[in-house]
Write a structure and sequence with these properties.
Blueprint lengths: L1 E6 L4 H11 L4 E7 L11 H4 L9 E2 L11 E4 L6 H11 L3 E3 L6 H10 L4 E4 L5 H17 L4 E8 L9 H14 L3 H4 E3 L13 E7 L5 E8 L4 E8 L3 H14 L5 E3 L1 H5 L3
The structure holds NADPH dihydro-nicotinamide-adenine-dinucleotide phosphate and the ligand O=C(O)C1=N[C@H](C(=O)O)C[C@H](O)C1.
Length: 267
């Protein structure tokens, strides 16, 4: 039985993760952490998600008995990444991380931690989006020399980072396939007198509103025809189940930084 600890248990994803773990017959909820200032601190994790109590009380991450956990899942905000990484490295526990909007320095921390523990890190844990990345790469290999490439993402009003991590992962995958460099070729939104589109650019457009769980479209627009590859997530449970699958996969792996592509055998 896999014993899964969840950081950020009170968040939108945290609650879905608790439910996904409680519904997994091969896993149990080891622990659920929240900010020390959280109004939910001390409450039962099952109660927090509106279900029957599960005998796991929300605690500060520092108070978790990590030695008895198999793996930790972290979908929080970038500012808590360093603490959670240091905790798991000190306790030598594998991690599954889904937090997006990480800075270059935070990505370097991830690389460092992965020298001593196995970590799965992905901007999107749905099967469909990982397949979309592959399909976008295949399309780019055929059409990337002539078509203009634009990535459009839509998310709920509460999302704090832009473009989405998934949009950036799609852009990175296409850049690798076509010999582009996102650092110089990405265009993040347009305004004013922009001039004509430079062909090698990859454009990103961000839409925010309502309760949209997560939509991504990759547009390959040529003269006379265009292809639009679209994925729409309709439930966060899709991401939560993917993260739990990754948790099962990462336990027992050697230290290293892995992706959901590795978990799904798509790498
Ligand atoms: N990879 C994937 O498949 C997916 C990734 N995501 C990403 O997951 C992340 C979380 O998304 P979502 O659940 O919607 O966000 P929420 O804002 O709903 O949840 C964030 C959680 O992190 C906690 N938190 C924030 N700062 C700290 C801190 N300094 N220390 C401890 N805990 C902290 C919050 O606690 P509190 O409630 O007390 O503020 C909350 O529980 C985002 O980066 C999002 O982009 C989302 C969906 C899928
Ligand atoms: O914040 C979200 O909600 C999501 N974030 C991830 C991202 O930034 O790509 C994944 C998903 O689209 C939902």
């Amino acid at each position: 039985m896999l014993k899964i600890g969840i950081f950020g248990a009170t968040g939108r994803m945290g609650k879905n993760l608790i439910e996904a773990v409680l519904n997994d017959s091969r896993a149990s909820l080891h622990s659920a952490s929240a900010r020390p200032s959280s109004a939910f601190m001390g409450m039962d994790a099952g109660t927090v998600i509106g279900q029957a109590p599960c005998a796991v009380a929300l605690t500060a991450y520092q108070d978790i008995d990590a030695a008895s956990a198999s793996v930790f899942i972290d979908f929080t905000l970038p500012e808590s990444l360093a603490d959670h990484l240091a905790f798991c490295v000190a306790q030598q526990r594998p991690m599954v991380i889904g937090t997006t909007g990480l800075s270059t320095a935070q990505l370097a921390l991830l690389d460092d931690a992965a020298k001593t523990i196995p970590i799965v890190f992905a901007a999107n844990y749905s099967v469909g989006v990982n397949l979309l990345i592959k399909l976008a790469q295949q399309t780019a290999a055929v059409m990337g020399d002539s078509a203009d490439i634009e990535i459009i993402e839509t998310h709920h009003r509460y999302k704090v980072d832009a473009p989405s991590g998934t949009a950036l992962a799609l852009g990175e995958g296409i850049a690798q396939t076509t010999g582009r460099n996102l650092a110089t070729d990405a265009v993040y939104g347009r305004e004013g007198y922009t001039g004509e589109r430079a062909h090698q650019t990859i454009g990103f457009a961000t839409v925010r509103g309502g309760d949209v769980v997560g939509d991504h479209t990759v547009l390959f627009a040529d003269i006379g025809e265009r292809i639009e590859l679209t994925h729409k997530a309709s439930s966060r449970m899709t991401f939560a189940k993917g993260a739990v699958t990754a948790a099962h996969w990462v336990v027992g792996k050697p230290p290293g930084l892995y992706s959901m592509m590795d978990v799904l055998g798509l790498a």
